[in-house]
Automatic annotation (TrEMBL):
Belongs to the SCO1/2 family. Keywords: Membrane, Transmembrane, Transmembrane helix. This is SCO family protein. PANTHER family: ELECTRON TRANSPORT PROTIN SCO1/SENC FAMILY MEMBER (PTHR12151), LINALOOL DEHYDRATASE_ISOMERASE DOMAIN-CONTAINING PROTEIN (PTHR12151:SF25). It comes from Paracoccus nototheniae. InterPro entries: SCO1/SenC, Thioredoxin-like_sf. The lineage of its organism: Bacteria, Pseudomonadati, Pseudomonadota, Alphaproteobacteria, Rhodobacterales. The chain crosses the membrane at residues 7-28.
């Protein structure tokens, strides 16, 4: 990792969160889901989120969605060059996972890039290590990343028309709870605190036992 990149990531982790561009088309509705763990729902139901995939992990290994989601997982779509939102959200997700682990519940965090051109496995390894030794980073071809994002209805767009090196990427900032069996059951907006996230995840885990 270059010195400039380290400075960027360290500064980003301390930055004040600003919502990244991108249209949020998840429609929040009142009500409670069948597990009693959430007070929100999404148009079409959470069953419509997710897809099978094969992507490249930060260690260079190709892995399937079944291999990734072998335990409750907090799934986030972002990119390593993101100056503010992604580092803060990744740190929040890692903190929620730590809170759950402290209460005896095993949860992992998963980071899927929306910028496969720059986010090589090596770059993802550097990035994920800043937040957790257990965070999984995933990349792939443009087509593979597009398919995964489509599966989770995630909007993203690279603003690279004028700059092919230091461009930013608009993207949604939801975190999804994916249970073993590749079932997406909940999502969290970026203003959800880690304590609330951990409480909700624990509820789903208890309901599944």
């Amino acid at each position: 990792m270059t010195a400039d990149r380290k400075i960027l990531l360290i500064g980003a982790a301390a930055a004040i969160g600003v919502l990244a561009g991108g249209a949020l088309f998840l429609t929040l509705q009142g009500g409670t889901d069948t597990s009693g763990c959430s007070n929100s729902a999404v148009a079409g139901g959470m069953d419509s989120f997710g897809t099978e995939f094969t992507l490249t992990r930060q260690d260079g290994q190709r892995v399937t969605s079944a291999e990734v989601f072998d335990r409750p997982s907090l799934l986030y779509f972002g990119y390593t060059f993101c100056p503010d939102v992604c580092p803060l959200d990744s740190a929040r997700n890692a903190e929620a996972a730590t809170l759950l682990e402290e209460s005896g519940k095993e949860v992992q965090t998963v980071f899927v890039t929306v910028d496969p051109r720059r986010d090589t496995p090596e770059i993802l390894a550097d990035y994920t290590s800043l937040f957790s030794d257990d965070m999984i980073g995933l990349t792939g071809s443009d087509e593979e990343i597009a398919a995964v994002n489509k599966g989770w209805r995630n909007y993203y767009k690279a603003n690279d028309e004028e700059d092919q090196e230091y461009y930013l990427v608009d993207h949604m900032t939801n975190t999804y709870l994916v249970m073993p069996g590749e079932q997406t059951v909940e999502f969290f907006s970026r203003d959800t605190p880690p304590e609330q996230m951990a409480e909700t995840v624990a509820c789903y885990m208890d309901a599944a036992t």
